[in-house]
Design brief:
about 325 residues; alpha/beta; 4-stranded parallel beta sheet; 4-stranded mixed beta sheet; 14 helices; 8 strands; elongated; binds iron/sulfur cluster
Length: about 325
């Protein structure tokens, strides 16, 4: 059970703060209002907090992709060092808050995660890269769940995926803070086995090997990186069916042919897009509870945190 809200950074303009160069905001109600029920939202506007003011001259990235400068377009002022100083101080503040993720405003020269235009008169090809603060954040918090608002707006599946990754990131963070050694890693992995399989079956096996060798140097850190990399992969219907078939395998010897038939009807309905995933999942949940399968009752994939269930329920379609 989640005891405290999960820290989540968000570009302040997405929360409705009028901090854009023109004094406007880019509020997205689900992010500004809906997510605060689940997450401890930390608003950050790099440009205003760096002292560049509101309103301020529009700016853009210029120069080389690997080290672009932040330049005001009309007045040609180079504010790169000012932004760099802000990044250093803000990241020191954020380290104390330990955000598990960040929702950035896309295409901003400060907040865009990728695909931000970088102007370079020496180059004939269009160049893109990351906004300066987003880039610094990703380096400082390599395991954080980092997305742009455009990704979340594009598809409801992306929104569900984001919520799921945030809860896994938080559990990993808690494990690292409270245990962090090798001894607990096997138990951590055991509870996440089907959730990892849901995204990447091969990673589930590799992470299992790392968990089994958790006492060796570097294994815990490698596990954390591999876990978040695996969870970043989109789940598919085929992978979900695969997971549910594995879960079904825990019961099949004890079931009547009628019970088996019911499950397979639900599963096939899901596979062919005629039923939601929650139908075969509910059957598996009921059966695990009925049969008191302690290993399955511990699976986050089958029994998510109630706060996560609530967060998924409030996602707009
Ligand atoms: S995109 Fe980033 S820097 Fe620009 S207004 Fe929004 S929070 Fe501020």
């Amino acid at each position: 059970m989640q005891e405290s809200k999960i820290p989540l950074g968000v570009s302040a303009c997405l929360l409705g703060f009028p901090v854009r160069y023109d004094g406007q905001d880019k509020r997205i109600p689900w992010i500004s209002d809906g997510l605060s029920q689940t997450f401890d939202v930390i608003a950050v506007c790099p440009e205003t907090q760096a002292g560049l003011g509101v309103p301020r001259p529009p700016m853009r990235l210029e120069g080389e992709c690997h080290s672009p400068q932040l330049i005001t377009i009309a007045t040609r002022q180079d504010v790169t060092s000012r932004m760099a100083a802000f990044c250093t101080s803000e990241l020191s503040r954020l380290v104390l808050m330990q955000p598990c993720g960040f929702i950035f405003k896309s295409r901003s020269p400060s907040c865009g995660v990728d695909g931000v235009p970088i102007f370079n008169p020496q180059s004939t090809e269009p160049q893109t890269g990351s906004g300066l603060f987003a880039s610094a954040f990703c380096q400082a918090f390599p395991l954080a769940v980092v997305v742009e608002e455009s990704y979340l707006l594009a598809d409801v599946i992306h929104r569900h995926h984001f919520i799921e990754r945030m809860f896994v990131a938080h559990r990993w963070q808690r494990f690292h803070q409270e245990d962090g050694g090798g001894a607990g890693l096997m138990a951590f992995h055991a509870r996440h086995k089907f959730q990892i399989m849901f995204h990447d079956r091969e990673a589930m096996r590799n992470l299992g090997r790392l968990a089994a060798n958790a006492g060796k140097p570097g294994c815990v850190a490698d596990y954390g990186q591999g876990l978040m990399r695996a969870l970043a992969k989109p789940a598919t219907v085929a992978l979900a069916v695969d997971c549910m078939m594995h879960l079904f395998g825990f019961f099949k010897k004890e079931l009547t042919s009628r019970q088996k038939k019911t499950f397979f009807q639900l599963l096939e309905g899901y596979r062919h897009g005629e039923r939601p995933r929650r139908d075969p999942m509910a059957w598996l949940q009921n059966q695990a509870q009925h049969d008191e399968k302690s290993y399955l009752l511990q699976q986050w994939f089958l029994f998510p945190d109630p706060c996560e269930v609530a967060a998924h329920a409030h996602i707009p379609l």
